[in-house]
Amino acid sequence: MICYKAADERFANTNRIIKEDMDNILKQPLDWIGFKDKYVLVTGGTGLVGSYCIWILLAIGANVIALVRNRDKAEKLFGNSVDYIVGDVSVPFECNKNLDYVIHAAGIISRISWKNTPVDVLEVNAMSTYYLLKNAVKNKVKKFLYISSNAVYGNSGNHNGILEENDYGYIDIQNVGSTYAMSKKFSETLCIDFTQQYGLDTAILRIPTIYGAMQGAESGNTIPQFIEDALSNKDITLQSDGSAMRANIYCADAVLAMFCVLLKGVSAKAYNAQSKNSFYSIIDTAKAIAEIASKYGYKISVKAKERDEFSKTSIIGLNDKLIIDLGYESQVSLKEGLERTIVQAMNKKGSVL
Asked: Which residues of 120-149 are buried (b: 16+ CB within 10 A; e: fewer)?
């Protein structure tokens, strides 16, 4: 039996969409009560998945320690319900709590940053993992969960494009655009190494393009950029023919997958996760956003480049059988998630969210 407060009290600083997401997550048959009174360190707490994760932990009675850069921003979301460590995740830090779990969700995901400040990306994404793992060993935590990305697969030789957890491909290490992928691969290797050398129980969750209520266009990812264009009554203009196929995951599904792997995942193992019915071409994703926006009075069109008849369609999907075997079941399809994200974006103006 799950013991938690009423939705309005649990998520007082959120709106209807986020409250519904939280309740849908907590309805899933996981051992939520096992987190009661446990101490959990979360990084990236003001980000998309980190904030959802903290709200869930507070709802089920966990003691949350959030490692954040901006305390004011964090307090607008969580008030004084959380213990804060203010600092940079890429440098050593001290935590005087006896931690039970660590959820490492911090990182630079902006494609703009990959190009303009690749050293910063490497420092934050890779060094943070090292220092957190060192701290986890010191605190003798029960489990360390690392949130990784399908970027680790690189240019896989799997020609059907549906990648299993061992389908690694080529990554050009002399291209600064590869910094993000390499930082994720290095961090995963660190997790495995700490399990091997120190016996630390680690688990890795790999997710594709993530989107949802608290993500802005500044991330440089396509879905939030398309949504911002649509809600600004600007046509969505693609820089390609839009035929590339991509897996996606709605933020609430990502958080559900996180807790599933944290509770049930095998040590030093990686798991793919994605949302149901989420494998769409970029142009069809853009058209779905335009169609949903039109329901709310926005009139836009989608423009793409002409397709080269000799070009091959890029396909990047994920085989998520391993995490499904753990009991993970996606709750939100792409079109459902897009509508929830668009409604939240329309309500966002003037809100702390």
From this structure: ebbbbbbbbbbebbebbeebebebbbbbbb
